[in-house]
Every structure is written in C-alpha cells, then in structure tokens.
Design goal:
The chain is of the alpha/beta class. It is built from 9 helices and 6 strands, in the order βαβαβααβααβαβαα. It is 42% helix and 16% strand.
Amino acid sequence: MDMLRVGIYGGTFAPIHNGHVAAAKAFMEQMKLDYLFIIPTYLPPHKQVDASDDPLYRLKMCELAFEGVDGVVISDVEIARGGKSYTYDTLKELQRPDTRLFLLCGTDMVLTFDQWYRFEDIFKMCYPTYVRRENDPFLTKRIVAKIGEYYEKYGVMFRRIVTDPIELTSTEIRRAVREGKDISHLVPQGVADFIRENGLYREEHV
C-alpha cells in the first residue's frame, strides 16, 4: 500500500508572512508531500500572544496566503480544540494507518525540541524536518550539535529543508504596521489587504 506523505507546519502565524510561505513550499517540494497541513495554534505553549489576538483572523490570513496552492490544507484543528496547542495532540489527531507524517520546525524549535510536551512520543509519530530562518554561523554549530544529540539519544534524524533564509519575523511586521509602514513586500497581498481592512496590529497590546 502506498503511504500518503503529509506535512504538518504549525505556528502562531501572527501574521503569516513570505518567509512562512517560502518554507512551506520548499517543505512540500523537498519531502515530496501529497498534502501539507498549515495549522495555526490556538494558544502556543512556549510563546506569548498579543492580548488582542483573534485566532480566527490568523486562520483566515493563512487561507489567503495559500489561496490557489495545490495540496495545501488550512486546518483549524488546534483552534477548534482550544487550550494550549500541543503538537503531540495534533499529531495524534492526524495519524492514519496509510499516512506518513512529516513535521516542519524552525531553528528555535529544533534547539528546544526536548523541552516539548511528550517529545519522545512525537519522535515516534513523525519524521522531523527543519528549515533555517537566519544566516548565523554560530547557530549552525549549535543546531548540528543538537541534531547529533537527538540522534545519539533517541535514534532520530532531523532532515534539513534547504532554502534561502528569509530573515523576517511576525513581530517585525506587527511593528511595521504600528509605525504605518508598507508591508506589501513582506506578506502575501491578500494578507496585507486583510490586515489593512480589519485594522490589525495598529496598537500595541500587552
């Protein structure tokens, strides 16, 4: 039986930007995925969200960012579940006998993976991959050492998705919006329009 190759790319996506989209497309191509699930978190366990955050707005922006991209599924599985969004719970929900799951991580996630909820179970449920979001030789050494540690301790190998890093963060985009700067070159056009039309990120909240 041919196994379906399904990718999982989760994140806060507040907002989703061109770096996320480029990483997702490289992930699909290099892992030869049949489908890619883009999954905005409800409440990220390791990150603070803006007090004015609306998960449904983030979900809609993901839909706009990947409009017309074959094989991409925008999933509300974590938003619908509510509470803290743990990757273990999401993988458990998406597991199927005929499916091979691939998980995409960023640099920060690779370095802290062994602090995640039930991370050893996650290793058994999927093939972890990672993409670099920055050009930093110092971090390269740390990543290589950490990946080696995971292999020695757990027999798990992280595969690298090779793409030119787009050094861009959602925090920078929110700041640019507050300062009245143009963000149309940083996010997909539909996302830029949605942020403007709904007045998102104009004020700083704590």
